[in-house]
Amino acid sequence: MIRFEEELNRLREYVIEAGDMILEALKNARDSLLNGDMDLANRVIEGDRNINRISYKIESACLKILLLEHPVATDLRIVSATLKIATDLERIGDQAKDICDLLKFLLEGNIYKDKMDAIIEMSNIIEEMVKNSLSAFSKKDFELSKKVIESDDKVDKLFYKVRDSMVDLIKSGANDCDQAIYLMMIAKYFEKMGDHAENIAKWVYYYSTGDRYK
To answer: pLDDT value at position 1?
Structure first.
């Protein structure tokens, strides 16, 4: 029993470590966009390998517990939910990297910094969602997880705002229309991050309550 508790504690530590990496990647992706900082963007791109490694550690630890300890009831929910959470965290890291990969194309034009307000607002909400979902994970706080889930509607509305603005820009035949496409792609990556943060919160809700969030 003591060994099992140690394995669960190690698993929680891995998730918190992964969460810290994700939050840093998200913040740096946003700052690289704001400042046109390709050096910072490259740090995000290179750091994705570390996120992949910690995600693999989480998955391996989960499978080890499932195979050797045969958890049941609440313990089984915790391990199975953590396995899913690891995937969502890794995807957020991938999307931060994808955003930074696109920055070099934006730097070739002139309009993108004037169109960033809604995208930055999206990133700020998503950062808060990720922080709260990780806090809910640590504390088994299903009420906080519900707040994260509800926040995703704000991200979706901002994405539609960016999408409509970019479509109008493309239709107008303005110069640098290719930048509008890149900005739409970046907004979509942020929107997907919001979906993954919502997924994490739903898994926290599940392992905290035993019920699926409806």
So the answer is: 62
